[in-house]
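tmp note - Oidioi.mRNA.OKI2018_I69.chr2.g5027.t1.cds
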Amino acid sequence: MWSESDLAESSCPTIDQRSTNDQVEPLYKLNPKLFITPVYIWGPSSQLQGLRESIGVAIRLNRTLLLPPFLTHNSDPIGGDKPVPVDVRLDIPELRKLISIGFTESLTCRQADVVFSARGIYQKPDDSFPMQERVKRISAFEKATQMEVLRRDEAQSSDFLEKPFLADSMPSPKSPKLSGAGMQFSYRSDTLQSEYNSTDTCATWLFPFNNYKYPVVWSAKDTPLTSGEQFFYQIVQHTRKPEYIRQMTTRFMEEQLNGPYVAMHYRYDAIEWSNVCARPQKGRKGEVCEILEKTGSKGLALALSRFILQTGAFISGLPPRSSVIYVSSPPSEARNIREVMNLAEKILEGEGWNIKIVSTLDTTKYLEENYGNCGVLGDFKSEVISLVEQEIAYRGDYLLFSELSGWSANVRKERILDDKYFNEMSVIKLVEDFGPASPNYSHAALYSKVEEEKKRLAMEQIQLAQKTPADFGIRQIQNS
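out:
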């Protein structure tokens, strides 16, 4: 807990803790003369998963893990593929307790002596040209680390298309094993050592994400964790958010979330998912598209209201007939999802129920007011806000998570460490079980006080529609 003097004093957090615990003996002490460096793919959540897989691979190959900077999401206001220091996202002192690490900034490796590929840079083995977005990501990695991977002197030659790297690739760049989901390794298998059999000093591991398979617990279990599950959650335990993020979160919560609360992550960005669902989708993604397209704002608000009315007793420590909810969303959806919450608030008022709503808008305002002059918020504002919100979601007494979201998945993995997997449900399941399409649904007078609010929001959405793409998901309020 923070003292009153701590809370009264406005100061910038300490970010760089790379030298903390630098003399600690790690649980896995790895070869100090062989190194492996991951080249991450996609956004921050995928990069974290790639890091966790890289830790397992470094242990199996007995190579010290050289940590490169992370890279920004392509939606970040400062631009995509910009370097993010590892200690902005990661608790370095904690990671040191687990594994031998170094940093690419030390320039231990100026060139990749060998490329271990988890995923390839060609769509198919017989393609003539590499995928430009993946070549671009390698270039961003090179710029951030000053470590060379690609052959640039002959980049325009046909020879480059067959041999794009300065060093040998394992497997070869056009191996069929690299198509689609790429290489698939089990944590129990020795295939990893045979595929990446090299004594070269500096290795890069290209694009890891769901390539090194750990067993993950996604629901409550009555039996002890297996050895594989224990290994994975040991890695999760040592790859948590840094101390400064935990401190910021504690200060924010003591001001605005001082008590039990439901955390909700709504990831279904209207523009992104309207594009996704415009194409035929299979499996669960197709089902999610169908549910999003027919739910609308009122449907989500009604589902959330029914959920709170029926499950409020699961969260103890609150006054009778009251709830607190924290809702996180992409910045582009923050105002829209806040309106949905206001709609739910009106519905619950009609049932004599009080709900306190805290959202991404409140977190953003708090961080700007209290840390706006701090370099980390100026340089990596979107990163810091997202990390604080993940910590809030992790601490929630109940979690409503977004299916098919790496952000939600990483939060759930951390909650499992505290046996919190009993108290969570997906937003899509929430709508299925409590929304208008639920077979148990009855209209009861749950929205007797909401018609006026609905009309007001509808007028705002009509005005918004003149400036934005076609309505989708929660933007369908005027038609819901």
